[in-house]
Amino acid sequence: MEKEPLISIKNVWKSFKKNKVLKGLNLSVNKGESLVILGRSGSGKSVCIKCIVGLIKADKGQILVFGSDVTKLKTEVLNKIRIRIGFMFQNGALYDSMSVRDNLAFTLKHHTKDLEASQIEKQTIEALEAVGLSEAIDKMPSELSGGMRKRVGLARTLIIQPEIILYDEPTSGLDTITAREISELIVSIQKKQHTTSIIITHDMACAKATSDRIMILNEGVIHAEGTYSELENSNDEWVQSFFI
Ligand SMILES: Nc1ncnc2c1ncn2[C@@H]1O[C@H](COP(=O)(O)OP(=O)(O)OP(=O)(O)O)[C@@H](O)[C@H]1O
């Protein structure tokens, strides 16, 4: 793994009115690395990754992505960075009125202009194959189980061949076995495509399977950092409470 930060958050602050969420957050993710962020509900994990893609604007601080400070970029330049980043939302964020095929094709057409229909079809099939869901191509989102929705959401993230993938609770709401399958899929994508990832999760099995490194967010800053086994063996009782 190369030790080159692809994402670097420096002294970032974010409040919503009186609610101070990020209070001088620092974190970095190296190229090819998979970072898991843990933290209690409401601790600001989603806000943190939304700041990385500029969906939420930080009040203060620097957020370097591919070497550019996204807090300072104009929309056109920010969009050039965004198209290199995949964002897997909690619910898959599928368009309910479109079939799986159309959901994927729409994302691809929006991302890469002037693609031929045959190329779109090929990439759609490949993305669904990558998540083991080729048979669902003509289904509507309402016909999919929670696990299938997550897989289609992942296929839609992968179809743009992102260099960075941000996963917001990829296994939430799934049974243990399906959750494990999604975690295994994340690891296999990581290995095959050498993506750089941030994974937000409350699922410790997912954290264990997918992380090179874990950071635990508390009170707007990183409270602890290490590998899964380092943190599992931490003397800090609060850190240990995540591993029980
Ligand atoms: N757009 C917004 N407007 C106002 N407040 C917001 C907004 N987004 C997030 N917040 C607030 O910021 C805080 C952190 O929210 P965030 O979604 O980042 O938590 P989280 O750590 O991801 O929680 P969970 O694990 O429950 O998903 C919460 O108090 C939330 O209400």
Write a structural description:
With 244 residues, the chain is an alpha/beta fold. The chain has 2 domains: 5-84 and 164-243, 3-Layer(aba) Sandwich (Rossmann fold); 96-161, no CATH class. It is built from 9 helices and 10 strands. The strands form 2 sheets. The chain has a 6-stranded mixed β-sheet, sandwiched between helices. Strands 2-1-4-5 form a 4-stranded antiparallel β-sheet, covered by helices on one side. The longest helix is centred in the last third of the chain and has 18 residues, at 176-193. It starts with a strand and ends with a helix. Bound molecules: adenosine-5'-triphosphate (ATP). Residues 16, 19, 21, 39, 41-47 line the site of adenosine-5'-triphosphate. InterPro entries: AAA+_ATPase, ABC_transporter-like_ATP-bd, ABC_transporter-like_CS, P-loop_NTPase. Residues 7-244 form the ABC transporter domain. Keywords: ATP-binding, Nucleotide-binding, Transport. GO terms for molecular function: ATP binding.
